[in-house]
Structure formats: C-alpha cells, structure tokens
Amino acid sequence: MTKAHLIEKLSEQAPTLSHRQAELVVNTLFDSIRDSLKNGEKTEIRGFGSFRLRIRQTKEGRNPKTGETVEVPEKRMPFFKAGKEIKELLNQEDGMKQMSL
C-alpha cells in the first residue's frame, strides 16, 4: 500500500473529508513520526506499534575493491516494532489465508 492509497482510503472512510484534507491528515501523521524520530523520541501508536531509533556504533569495515580497512561511522536507524494486536492478527489462521490470496 502506498501513501496515495492511504489518502484515498481515508477520504473514502470519512466522506466529510475532501481528498486534500485527507492528504493533510496523512502527511501530518507521517511528519510527526519523522520529527519525533529526528529528535530522538519514541512514537507509540497503541494497537499498531512503536517507532524508535536504534544507534549503530562505529565499526571497522573493509573496502571490497582494495581490502583496505575503513571506519564506518555511527548511524541512527529507524526501527518499527509491531504491537501485540497486529502480531496476533497476522498469526491467526484466517489472517494467513487472506494474506495468501
């Protein structure tokens, strides 16, 4: 599912919202999650999951062409952890049948 699909689905589910308003809602949601991660904060959406940062420490790597040792700098990586309800939904027998269709 793409962002455009989410906007379309929201405008269908809430007929009082125009397509432009639905787009604003979806963009605001994603921007809020992005900004909280940028500030090092965790975002938790009950029943869905949580977004947080994981920090990968500096490490040594190798240049595959030359074999030379290089330092790979520390990285901040986004991480999503699915909530209990989503995990249960995905692991139900009916959910597995629907996913394979």
CATH C-level class of the largest domain is Few Secondary Structures
Using the coordinates shown, work out and report the CATH topology of the largest domain. HU Protein, Chain A
Summed up, the helix count is 4
Shape: elongated
Question: What is the percentage of strand-forming residues?
Answer: 25-35%
Cross-sheet strand order for the largest sheet? 1-2-5
End-to-end CA span: 15 Å
Task: Write up what this structure looks like.
This protein is of the alpha+beta class and 101 residues long. The chain contains 4 helices and 5 strands; from the N terminus they run ααβββββαα. It folds into 2 domains: 1-39; 42-101, IHF-like DNA-binding proteins (HU Protein, Chain A, Irregular). The chain has helices at residues 3-13, 19-38, 84-90, 93-100; strands at 43-45, 49-56, 59-62, 69-72, 75-82. The strands form 2 sheets. A 3-stranded antiparallel β-sheet has the order 1-2-5. The chain has a two-stranded antiparallel ribbon with strand order 3-4. A hairpin with a 3-residue loop joins strand 1 and strand 2. Helix 1 (3-13) packs across helix 2 (19-38).
Features:
101 residues, 27% strand, three-stranded antiparallel β-sheet, HU Protein, Chain A, 5 strands, alpha+beta
